[in-house]
Amino acid sequence: MDSESREEIEQKIRSLYEAGCPLFTKDAIRDVSEQLKQNGDTGQEILIKGLDGTIVDFNIETGGTQSAAEPELEYLMVTLRNKVTKEPVDPPVRALETAEEVEKYLNASVQAWEGSEQCRQLKSTLAAAITTPVKVTKIIGFACASVAVDYYNEHSDRRSPFQHALLLTIWNLLEKQSEHPGTIACYAQDPAYREADKVTLNKLGITVLEDPEAFLEVDDSSVVFSCAPNVPVKQIIADIARPALMIWDKVGEYQEGDDYKIWWVLRLMVKPKASFSSNKAENSTDPDSSRVREMIKNHYQELEFPSDRVHFGTMAIYVRKTTSANGNEVQK
Fold first, then answer.
1. Is 2 exposed, middle or buried, given 0-12, 13-18 or 19+ CB atoms closer than 10 A?
2. In this model, does residue 63 exceed pLDDT 80?
3. Which residues, 6 or more positions from 46, have their beta carbon under 8 angstroms from its beta carbon?
4. Which of 2, 46, 129, 185 has its CA 20 to 30 A from that of 302?
5. For residue 216, is pLDDT > 70?
6. Cβ–Cβ under 8 Å, residues 99 and 146
7. Which InterPro entries match (predicted)?
8. What is the pLDDT of residue 262?
């Protein structure tokens, strides 16, 4: 395999992908997680099955160092500005350290979100889309970031607390329409969470899961939320489940070069030590792909997410289509 050219590797990947070979499976994710728990020290090895079925080994290099050129020191004049208004703002203060501070900051953001027009629109959209009692058992939020670290000063855009507030809104709404109120669980996963975040979220009823446990929880009775994650959430979900509802970055139309966006996900699965790359592949850490688009086209109805680029960016709501008596999927 070491003698294969870049073109041969890409063609093999393309053929496997187009044939429907899953990039991610729950069994594979679970296996890697268990190996890392048992052999996660620097210098240890874990075994992973590649996309073509070949077993390859990966060295654990956590904490490792590499030689580099002599460090240089450079001074720059920087003015911190609000990214929306462009007005100068005060330098950021420390991150919040105690659960009490995080709780106070998050509660204030929840109140602001609940009182916003965007929240009202979201509730109205979801209420209209979910016209019958829902069979949702869990709500799972990915990469909502640390509330403690999100806190800077009065000019902070509050993305993290607003995203957690949205999780609570969805949870409360679905509980009211559930056939069995009180049985829906709410999970959140982000390696960035600090202890103060975990304590605060737990107090609100949100269970924090360690990576990759939240992916293992996703099934067809789930609601999935993610906003600009640093992991390929769309790719993983497309392979492992068809959630009842998804709220994530809007899936766009196909554009020239889209295929390259999945190479960074795929290249290590077929040829772990391959060094090829493409600038187009680095445009997103959660790219769209033909598989994601097919999932959306065939199984979901897209609804508009309230415009709020500051806290959420460009999002969309995807509601799974219902199935008619003859087995055909129909729009709700």
1. exposed
2. no
3. 32, 35, 36, 39, 57, 58, 60
4. 185
5. yes
6. no
7. SRR1-like (IPR012942)
8. 55
What is the distance between the alpha carbons of residues 240 and 220, in angstroms, rounded to a whole number?
Answer: 9
Q: What is the pLDDT of residue 101?
A: 94
Alpha carbon separation from 275 to 2, 45, 47, 264, 271 (Å, rounded): 11, 20, 20, 10, 9
Q: CA 120 from chain center: how many Å?
A: 24
Total length of the chain:
332
Contacts of 107 (CB under 8 A, 6+ apart): none
Cβ pair 223, 139 in contact under 8 A: yes
Phi, psi of 216, deg, nearest 5: -70, -20
The HSE-up count of residue 226 (CA atoms within 13 Å, CB side) is 24
Under 8 Å between Cβ of 235 and 291 = yes
**pLDDT for residue 99:** 95
d(CA 201, CA 167): 11
Report the DSSP beta bridge partners of residue 309. none
Report how far apart the first and last C-alpha atoms of the chain are (Å, whole number). Answer: 49
Confidence of residue 90 (pLDDT cuts 50, 70, 90): low
Tokens of residue 86, six digits: 């462009």
